[in-house]
Amino acid sequence: xxxxxxxxxxxxxxxxxxxxxxxxxxxxxxxxxxxxxxxxxxxxxxxxxxxxxxxxxxxxxxxxxxxxxxxxxxxxxxxxxxxxxxxxxxxxxxxxxxxxxxxxxxxxxxxxxxxxxxxxxxxxxxxxxxxxxxxxxxxxxxxxxxxxxxxxxxxxxxxxxxxxxxxxxxxxxxxxxxxxxxxxxxxxxxxxxxxxxxxxxxxxxxxxxxxxxxxxxxxxxxxxxxxxxxxxxxxxxxxxxxxxxxxxxxxxxxxxxxxxxxxxxxxxxxxxxxxxxxxxxxxxxxxxxxxxxxxxxxxxxxxxxxxxxxxxxxxxxxxxxxxxxxxxxxxxxxxxxxxxxxxxxxxxxxxxxxxxxxxxxxxxxxxxxxxxxxxxx
Length: 377
Description:
The structure is a single chain. This protein is α+β, with helices and mostly antiparallel strands. The protein has 8 helices and 23 strands. The strands form 6 sheets. It has a 6-stranded antiparallel sheet with strand order 12-11-22-19-14-15. Strands 18-17-16-13-20-21 form a 6-stranded antiparallel sheet, with no helix packed on it. Belongs to the NAD kinase family.
């Protein structure tokens, strides 16, 4: 797959010339190096209304387009699929996998999602490196990230297979969590005194646990079940920029700016803008406003030394875990964006979602002045 995008502007000052490259959203097009042969179909779990669309899509991909269809094992465990004898011949051709056990990242040409925005987030989590193009059908509740309607899925899928589609590159966050653990060494013979007190020679052993994640929407650090304020330090490129005292802080991509961050009062950023947004959650300050920083910086979040309680972190609403003193969360823009296939183009799709899903700037229009009222002024 190739993605073409370019705008160049040359500027001259005396004998010096410099070039300014601007990304044109309309120039992002899907072009296949060779026809796609394998497709991953992701279906929202526990939704009976999606069973028939799922069967119709898989039959079309497998029988009509002769494609290799990958499906997660738990999707096929639905009794409505298991007991459908007519779907059996198609189901036997599927390649199945299990999350956290099977690596399919190098076997998929493109992805089709059936459901809501959560299916796109789940697709992102399956690919720690390069992500295949994603085509998302709106069969969920909100559908901000799912621009396609399922009624004409055959013609729309055919256009994608033929390479006739626009793309928006949704930046992701590369997150590294470093945890410090203290564990006592295994007691050896005579290592513990007769009264059960630990021998001074057996000291606590330090070691670090490192975990990495690719995040499409946001990293959320909050106070968890504690009744105290969250108290975390935020560093930018090694410099302390602020301490968050409140319910927590959201670090989001432009794609995530229309999710939790929007509910917390942040601005909404088009996904083509290279940026990271930092949004406090209920800060105990009248002057703490959300800020936008360049995509290339590295953020680090740690518990403040005088924090009264631990914090909790989650990544696109998943993998929630506790953060203790000495632990750190490093965040920067990933070099592996998610190519999302557009229904029209990146700009039109985004404003359509703002209007349809979030009812952006919906207001009853003001009436015009009557002719006699204008004459009075």
